[in-house]
Design brief:
Chain lengths: 317, 317, 317, 317
């Protein structure tokens, strides 16, 4: 008997759906998943390397910022070495023609740049042990820095990215003879995405037996949760029928319960043989009631056009 | 009752097979999948970066075109910098021996080339702040451009490609005591492809209750949909028995209904530990009736020969 | 009948759980899995290349040690070539200005460094066949060494690592109306880990029919063995109910039987599209009885904080 | 009725096991899978690029041969360019000090090497349009060749390889109260292989209804077909009980029927997050009857030793 009760409690706990966020995230109008797909957590007390997470940060940095960073680093390293060469005495840099301190410093600077990039014209060249040794080290550093840059550039290029754009809002629209929650996605690039699977979870605050607010999660049943080819656009549809956690919910109730529709998409990028993932969420106020998406596909002779800027367009009914 | 009707409508909708193309693609003799495996869609209104899709384009570019592009870029960048150096005054390029404008310009050009490739002989070397600074920037650009090229070349080399060739036509041939739709594939390279899975979908236009033409999709049941090792050739066979969507269809009907046989192959390239994919399709007029493929394998002593140019050969019956 | 007996023996053997370690590992207080996730085996008689396993070793080497190794190799190679150039006679190195043996040797050394890094200032340059040929070979070696370094640096950067930290101890804690074995993990970095699956195996020494000690393995049933998103922390819980191999085991019995809890985690690093794995184990003396983990998550306005240094903190009950 | 017969024929055909080799490979004592894991096929009529398959060939080439190839290419390219520079006239190479044709040619050669590696000392430097242009092109070629080499070296390093060694022979040994076919594998390196799955297929020639010899395939039922961790050694066992295709087969029968045991192993290399595959086969004369493998594992204090050179050792019974 006691055992029976144990089993039931445990069974309930096992059956409770949990996305990995726990039940305690209850409010202040936060969202679980940010619009960029990141989870809304902050790690406190990471060690320095984890906090820095240099590779990920560099890989995900926009190209312009990355280029600027490299340029700034190039300047900084050259100023550093220029100062060393200048301090060691410019008579150790054979071929310098500058006649005052400033000219000599800049010639040291450009000698450093020629060493770091291994261009080494040789008009200026190191002479004497210390300056030659520093120059040898600088050229080694240059080579390794450049090796790092090569790896990073390749990493940036080949990073798996799912080029999926989501409609700005989800809609509650008529569907067959009921209504449905729907949103729309489009494949932004001509990458061949195959075997796309969508998982949609509905999360909201509920009151438990003790009157405490806890967050619950329900996986939504979809009209179609997988497409073989995701070549253009796809409207993902959850029919609101009896048994759905949205059944007979009103807009006000969903706002009150801080409802959030969480989407996780998995597919395979055939062009680069990588699995790609994409996450998004719609909070209650991003759900429009009684509206219908406008068509995105238009036949155009031998081909079918997909009009991308109609992705978020809908007609209120 | 209303609920029952809802469920049935929704159930029908759920059961409808859809490859991700939708039901509205209805004609003008288009094909769904082009011969190169690309989907027959055109994205309208992509942003510039998506449209350009630089990495994919460079990776998929033929080697000759890629080499030519690099050479042209090399010339363009050198002309650009040559013009800058020349404008700044060739007295800032120590060592120039040219005596007229044209010779001086070309020496600036070759100085630029020596800087960009970091070969830096040093017969000509920059002197003065501005020219030295430009040269430093050019050598940095050279290094980064070369880092990019390294990444691209590796990307081109290691790109997952399924070296699968399809027979030019599919056949409707006698098979045991019925007929079957069949086509043949061959592994073009000595890559070890394992766990190859074939999915074949038959698509055609049908008329719905309202008399509108809609496109429907049926997955075809195969004699064998998976082989453990795809080392040589494989004839993929769909027996046409009762229940098959091709049962009692005539050639004329299939042409009329714009039938298309869509093939999706998945496997694992054991040599490079990549999953590889391949798609193809046969439209109605690429299906030959009453024909039989000729044999491709021939024993040759200790080894078995696979005669590749017999791939598409068939005998009319 | 005989056949029946065969089948039963074979069936028993088939049903025996085995992690791949065999049943003979019986003691001296060893552990099966070391704290770094490596298996506690030593391979005897590997061939040299397998023993060296150069790529893996270099990839897994800490950055500081790797940098030091490159620097030492750089010195060694330069000393080697310097000695060759010096032996061939410094009159083959045009431009040398040193006046004694030591100065000439160091100029040979720096000439070597300038050749290896391809900086090639040219103040010193090779003259004569042999020295020129050696220099040509050295510059080729420099380029290839640098190509290797580029590959290694990229390999080090992009190596799949699951940034998962485990609580230092597992706990036996009250759970609903029974007790449970539990331990806690945290995602150390802001990588998006998805579809994390935990497998937990309990291993202990038992006495077989003949009185011999053999090691047995039992997979533990978990409250939740998978989370869709592993964004922050996760307490993995095995409820100790009837049927559990821990049911009514005491602390003393587990120490005596050299019990070990083996954990294997699999997930997908969404940021780099790699599957990541992590292993750990708790031996009997790393299990604390009657204790409870303190909370790690704290709401902080719009975001939820995860306090990482509380990972291993527990309260004794 | 006719339909019933169709279905049965088709069902038989569907149930026929086929590894992808077909049924026609019938003899001359060939083997299906070579000892290096390659399939015993020869592709006839490949196009040139498929036949060459440059990337795969270079990636799989032994390191010594690869290094030699690079060195030879380096020489060839330099001889080529040296000949061009020499033909254009050595007065276009400023700084040449050679006094006869041979010396001048070799200085052209070393100038070429200095250009190709971008070391560019500058003692010799190009002067005049054509020679300068050729040198610019050579330095570009040098950079790109080196980019290719970088990619190839990384490809060679990171190539997925399953370091699995097989026992030289399979054994038919006593097992519980019957016999079993068994062979042994060992993990040669300290890579962590996980979730190793073994598939073993028994192939032999049989005589069909018409008296023709055809090759048939039977998947063997294994004592254990998967291990969670493959850290050391694993004996793969097929118990020969009623229903096994080896049941009551004699050694002579297996030799006569050209039996072959084909093994396919799949696992995940946790160290590099790659799936790895390995194939092997034992033909009839590589199966030893009435023998037993000697033990490979030995406890050694806190660790367990795996004695690798005992892999193929067995005792005749």
């Amino acid at each position: 008997m006691a055992k029976g009760r144990v089993s039931e409690l445990i069974r309930n706990e096992k059956e409770r759906q949990d996305l990995g966020f726990g039940t305690k995230i209850t409010g202040q109008n936060t969202r679980l998943i940010n619009k960029n797909g990141q989870f809304n957590f902050r790690l406190v007390g990471q060690d320095f390397r984890s906090k820095l997470n240099l590779y990920k940060r560099l890989i995900e940095m926009p190209w312009l910022k990355f280029s600027l960073l490299i340029f700034v680093l190039f300047l900084v390293v050259n100023f550093l070495f220029a100062t060393i060469y200048y301090s060691l005495g410019t008579h150790h840099l054979q071929g310098i023609v500058g006649t005052n301190a400033s000219e000599k410093y800049w010639e040291s600077f450009f000698f450093s740049a020629q060493t770091l990039t291994t261009v080494g014209y040789g008009r200026i060249s190191p002479i004497g042990f210390v300056t030659s040794a520093i120059a040898a080290i600088e050229s080694l550093i240059g080579l390794l820095a450049f090796a790092l840059a090569t790896g990073l550039l390749y990493g940036k290029f080949s990073r798996p990215v799912a080029f999926i754009r989501y409609s700005e809002t989800a809609l509650i629209a008529p569907y067959l003879d009921t209504t449905a929650l729907m949103f729309r996605i489009v494949n932004e690039r001509d990458h061949q995405l195959i075997d796309m699977v969508a998982i949609v979870v509905f999360s909201l605050l509920e009151t438990d037996k003790n009157g405490a607010k806890i967050r619950r999660y329900y996986t939504l049943d979809l009209e179609r949760s997988k497409v073989a080819f995701f070549a253009s656009n796809w409207t993902i549809v959850h029919p609101i029928i009896e048994g759905s956690p949205l059944w007979q919910k009103t807009e006000a109730e969903m706002l009150e319960a801080e409802a959030e529709v969480i989407i996780s998409l998995n597919g395979h990028d055939d062009s680069f043989s990588q699995s790609v993932h994409s996450r998004n969420s719609y909070i209650a106020k991003e759900i429009v009631w009684n509206a219908k998406f406008v068509a995105m596909q238009e036949p155009a002779g031998q081909v079918t056009d997909v009009i991308m800027n109609k992705l978020s367009e809908y007609d209120l009914l």
